[in-house]
Amino acid sequence: MTILNDPVNAKLGDRAQLSYIASQAADARLNVELETEGMTLNIGPQHPATHGTLRIIARLDGEQVLWAEPSCGYMHRGYEKLTEVRSFPQVTSLINRIDWLGSFANEVPFILAAENLMGVEAPPRAQWIRTILFELSRIANVSLFLGDLGVQLGAITPVFIAFRDREYVLNLIESATGGRFHPNFDRIGGLKDDLPAGWVDETKVVMKKLRNFCDEIEALLFGNEIFQSRTRGIGVIPRDVAMQYGLSGANLRASGVDWDLRRDQDSPMAWNKVDFKVWTHPDGDSFARCWVRLQETREATKIVDQLLDGIPAGPVMAKVPKIIKVPEGEAWVSTENPLGEMGYYVVSRGDSGPFRVKIRSASFNNISITPWLLRGVYVPDIITILASLYFILGDIDR
Amino acid sequence: MVNLLSSPAETAPVVDTTRDQIVADIRATLGASVVDSLVKPGDDVWIRVTTESWNSSMQKLQAMGFDYFCFLSAIDWLPSPFGRGEDDPTEPAPERDSTIRPGYTGGETRMQMLVRLVNSRTHVGVNVKADVPNDGYTIDSISNVFAGANWHEREAHEMFGIGFVGHPDLRNMYLPADFEGFPMRKDFPLLARMVKPWPGIVDVEPLPGGDAEPEEVS
Fold first, then answer.
1. Given 3.40.50.150, 3.40.50.300, 1.10.10.10, 3.30.460.80, which CATH number is that of B17-87+103-195?
2. Do B116 and A345 touch (CB under 8 A)?
């Protein structure tokens, strides 16, 4: 580059001049000895990417994150303490509100833990309907994620499609349980009620609509070049790190771990009666996490279809005492919830209420990886990574 | 009702060879560190390790294949001096039994650690417990073994007041930094229940016209 060594006599074209300035600027950025002043960026507590009120404090060097730390607790409601002064049937109305987008799925592991301690088993019909409602809450939950994902990357259309189609699922949940968001429908020993007339046929129609929704989102979002370039290779979580942090659900399966509690665990629920595929992705990046969720939503509609065909006849409630007293003991039950593994460690002292309940929520573990994951990423990628990890604030803070 | 606190052999004739084998393997690897163990056939495994070997047991269990960290928490075995928060605040508080009675696999202290690890190949989990000494409530941190334990230990620190030796950063997660007391301890009152009697008490009383004695479970 002799021409640049003698800039006085050199006659630079416009293009050469511009590239010279650009290379100088790049050198200045790369110069590690150049003192740059860091800055602290505060994201949230009110931010559309946080699904509630999560605050992220990020220390930046230029566009790069030096460290970032989520600050939780804006929505801590102390459910673990409150369960100690509630009776077993009362607890379900509290834990409904942990992951509010898939409420019914929150009730199931707790009820299963109580049933485990009492030695009660719900009749088959109740187990099947439970499983159907569980999968419906998964669809309602994850379809909102798929729509919201677009918003966080600057695409507005998917969220309207998602809200339109999620409505059909919420209507189903409402017509079966009476509650759109907080069904409080699961009981120790079975369910509050049987399904309403015509519900099965209606659900089949809706499942078809939801499969169309998945196709639509796949074409609209996952095939989009901007979406791919913003998510592929961003926020990669290797398998062993995911295991150490206790990631679960789609976040774990997107790191190549073939593990689904619906398939790999003995459960009284009806998952072992149907045939379904557990989707995994080897990449571990943001795209993989979103892609696995999309496939799981589609798979869930197929699970519901299969279950609808085979609901056994019979009662929906086992014979349980009017006053529920749970025998002394400890039990751990977890299920594959929309956000990941959700479990309850229930300690009973033979009382009408639990002695201690440890709520193991998926989002708490999933989000605890962020200080590790956000180191060194660029500011716009913070939003992509958080969106793809998919958490619900109520599920972090409990 | 079946009392599962007694030895499992006499109450449950079912044999769970998988889980019995897991306990045998763990006992062989951890040696004298294992104080007690319990298998509920077809359900779950509990083991209790000594306080001193808490960290090293975790390392050995991880090397054995229990490499998935599920959760960490603590249990306060002190019966609540406030009962179930159903006392009338205008009446003097009734006398309550305050004997500390531990759960599965026993224990000598008021506080106990509880960790659940899962084997990622066989998908079988174990619940590992350890006593937290009554003087000072401190135990070794396991965040150097399982990175995910970091946040769980922070939560246990602020909620139960348990100190973790070797933890990098025990700042509060949920509570304000100047908060006094440890909310999840049993002797920390739930103030909402202290100022006003709980109306929900009617729910657990016998129904009018109903039978006072619980029916037998069929």
1. 3.30.460.80
2. yes
